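Intended use. Records like the one below are meant for learning the mapping from a protein sequence to its folded structure. Do not use them to infer anything beyond what is encoded.
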Amino acid sequence: MGNNNYGIDRQRLEDYAVQIAELVKMGVQVGIVIGGGNIFRGLSGAASGFDRITGDNMGMLATVINSLALNQTLLQKGVNSSVLTAIRMEPIGEFYSKQKAIQRLENEEVVIMACGTGNPYFTTDSGAALRAVEIKADILFKGTRVDGVYTADPEKDANAVKFSEISFDQMYEKNLKVMDLTATTMCKENNMPVYVFNMDTFGNLKKTVCGEMIGTLVK
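Structure written out for the chain above:
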């Protein structure tokens, strides 16, 4: 959404694509799961009177729109990229499978995995956690507009203190809303480390992949 009130900010999309293309040139295998809140949020739809399942389905479709936009921008930059969807919708995107995703990653292709888990009642975070475990990722990077995990919401509490590292159990105990419980449990039980960082600052993606401690490691 960038600086817009709705939809896709072209400059933000361009910034993301440039940073992802840089990783590909470095030889990094990149799998991406995108949310759809800039277009439609399932929970807000339910609050507006939509049936929860209908709202979540609309939210999953919103992730497809974002995925297609990023895919097209990457292709324009000469990066091999494709969209796999958790819900069948050929020819918009190919139906997701773990084997297909891994094969494409090994062929130096960026794989954008849309529709979350393909099921209502699951967030995009849960979809990202599931896909990270399935494709045997080394780490799950959670790009947000905050530069890590804090003792409280830094946008609301000026005294919030940032963690450089924290365990999944500590997140539970402190009730920190980094990811929903389903996603957190999925990562904990499968030893999938999560790195939370500010994706909206240009250059941060490469810094995190290269090991600069600019965010918070959750493990």
